[in-house]
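Before any further analysis, backbone shapes were mapped to integers, which produced the following:

***
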Amino acid sequence: MTKEELLQQYSEGKRDFSRADLSGVNLSKANLAGANLSGADLSGADLSGANLFGANLSAANLSGADLYEAGLSRADLFKADLAGANLSGADFFKANLSGANLTAANLYAANLYGANLTGANLTGADLSGADLSGAGLSGANLSGAVLYGANLVRANLSRANLTGANLSGADLSGADLSGADLSGANLTGVIGYKK
């Protein structure tokens, strides 16, 4: 499906684009709020600055996609593949990312306030300066992730794998770390954490 076809159909009121092949398509700044893109192939697509508020992207392939400063608040990304995607500055306010693959994703300064990342794979992801306050990260794999200066106030990190993660300068005030594995993690200058 081309960008023109998608945007034309969306403007005519169509919202169901599940399983659509949109790999490599340039949808920069497109308005796709509330669209159903579940199971769609958006690998390598340019969605920078796009409005995907409340969109259904469950099980979608967004590997290597560019979502720089995209609006994904309240979007459903359950089990979506975002491996190696550029998500820096993106807004995931209260989004569902449970079970998502975010391996080596760039989430620098992303807004993940209140987001559900339960069981998500964030191995080697860059979450420097990200806002994860109140986020649910229970059982998430954050091994080798960079959380330098991240806001993790009141985040649920119970049973999370934080082995070898860089948490220097992060704020863990009120965070739940019960059963979390912090072996080999860099905790230099961490706020609100006592061993």
User: Anything to note?
Assistant: The chain has one helix and no strands.
